[in-house]
Amino acid sequence: xxxxxxLRCLLLxxxxxxxxxxxxxxxxxxFDLDRxxxxxxxxxxxxxxxxxxxxxxxxxxFDDSTWPLLQSNQPWSGQGYAEMSGFGWYRFTITIxxxxxxxxxxxxxxGPILTTYQIYIDGKLAGGFGKMPPxxxxxxxxxxxxxxxxxxxxxxxxxxxxxxxIRVWHSPIWASYIxxxxxxxxxxxxxxxxIATETxxxxxxxxxxxxxxxSYTIAALIIGLTIFGLYLFRPSEREYLWFxxxxxxKAIDAALNITKEIYAFPSIPIFDLxxxxxxxxxxxxxxxxxxxxxxxxxGLLWKIILGMALLSTIFNVFYWPGWxxxxxxxxxSVFFVLPSSIWMLVTLVIGSIRRNSTARLLxxxxxxxxxxxxxxxxxxxxxxxxxxxxxxxLENPVITVPFSMHxxxxxxxxxxxxxxAFLIRRFTIARRREERWEGAIEAARQVQQLLLxxxxxxxxxxxxxxxxRPAEQVGGDFFQILPVTGPGDSEDLLxxxxxxxxxxxxxxxxxxxxxxxxxxxxxxxxxxAQLLASLNDRMAGxxxxxxxxxxxxxxxxxxxxxxxxxxxxxxxRNGRELECAGALPLGILNGLGYExxxxxxxxxxxxxxxxxxxxxxxxxxxxLLGFDRTQELSTxxxxxxxxxxxxxxxVDDITVVTIEFVGTRAANxxxxxVTA
Length: 676
What we know:
- It is a single chain.
- By secondary structure, this protein is an alpha+beta fold.
- The protein has 3 domains: 40-207, Galactose-binding domain-like (Jelly Rolls), CATH 2.60.120.260; 210-429; 456-661, Phosphatase 2c, domain 1 (4-Layer Sandwich).
- The protein has helices at 3-25, 98-103, 192-209, 211-233, 238-263, 268-293, 300-311, 326-353, 357-384, 407-451, 504-522, 528-539, 612-615, 626-633, 638-649, and strands spanning 40-42, 47-51, 69-70, 86-96, 106-110, 113-114, 116-121, 124-129, 145-148, 160-170, 181-182, 188-191, 462-469, 477-485, 491-500, 548-555, 560-566, 572-573, 576-577, 597-600, 606-610, 654-661.
- The longest helix has 45 residues, at 407-451.
- It starts with a helix and ends in a 15-residue tail after the last strand.
């Protein structure tokens, strides 16, 4: 027989043996429901109960057989002890098999028990939750808590009997509407590691129950801070400030609710006070926001409504000492918020009827949150007054898969997204308007640059310096320096300096009109009084932005100064104010006449003309540069005067023109450039 054939036969024989013997070697696993179960037992069964307080009831030897039995998964208020406050004791026993009592580390888990309790194991205090009275501001928790069971003294002969006594104190503050004692069950006893795992499971499950509130808190906080940052960039638009306060107050309130529902807020009365304060702040901020975006008047009624909303929070203090019941306190708080809600909804409805696009965009989200808040509080109050209605009717989750979604959080999310979309739309529209306005401003600036002289004309016998610094991109100051041919072909000088009331584009447009009119009139006359009278007649009834001051000076080649003033600041001559006859500014009354003053200048005399932006320069403490300081500065150069006023605190356009009369025809005169 060939060698390969032998190997093939040996391999087949081996595989056959394995196939035959394998079923005999394998055995099916047997499970024992009693022996192999997890060592954890539910304690959600009737417990012995007795109202009152006696520390002897913690003694394992105490006979509680005459005590009534109450269900351990529901409060005592629905089991014959309605609205009972104060102390109550629960007792029961646990039987531990000998093998478990000697070999395992055991623990007990208790579900939520309101409001404060202590647990005694075999007569010894093992732990508890909260602070026993005297305690004005108790707190309540909805979490499960685990407590280790001390090991039994050895030796143990037979099962171990453990006596459990739970001393519960229920605050009188809530007794009228929340029952004391165990709330939902979930009590267990078993191995400590399994109890710790089960407690962790309950904690995580409760956190998942409020994952929507977590998400809303984070989203509201981010959006609120973002909108507040936007307000810092645009402080004139207060609607961003009110909206930021509104959303941040709601975010803080949501965080408070997370702390209460999951982490046991340290004091429920303090929570109620902070919660109502955040609601009041949010309500007032929403009222201010709507007033701003709808351009509503803030009359006496509006102020009363705002004050009531802010005062709503104080009623959550009155139930602490028992002055008011909790339902009455809640209803009064809602009653003081209600007028602002009605005012907002009525205003939005009227605006929608009048085809106000802003009102139409806001009516649905505002109605959603305001209506939900009022309806939820009314239902809670009705339940507290004894009506058969679920107080959490509007607070139970409407969506449970894949995560819970509470109706209040859903309403707030819809409101947040709708308001955010509204603000983005509003910001976009405002930005487009700004771009158009900036384009108009730039066009006005370019026109103004063309109208104002860039280079001073070279006029023999005069040294001229000037500077112009607008407070904004365009300004309301203007000046013109024009060479004029006088008698005998002499080269004289005509100076016009003025200031249009206001700043920005309206003032710039008025300056353009005045300069154009002035250049036209200067071709007909160089007499200062006649020139001002002509300008006044042209401007009468057209100056919507206010009055316009103007000063006109004519200086001949031999130094004779003729000056007429229409309400402008008089010039300075060699550091002293030059007296001028006063007159009304331009454009106020038609047909006004102006007087001329004549002064003979001497070679070396220096004239300084300034606008009120120099005198009215204001520092941070509110102090003005003033006339005295301006007079002291008048002997300096134009750039030095303007720099001093600007550094002191510029609040208006600054114009400075200095003219030095030389008296001789200076051949080396050079043109000077205006500095802006």
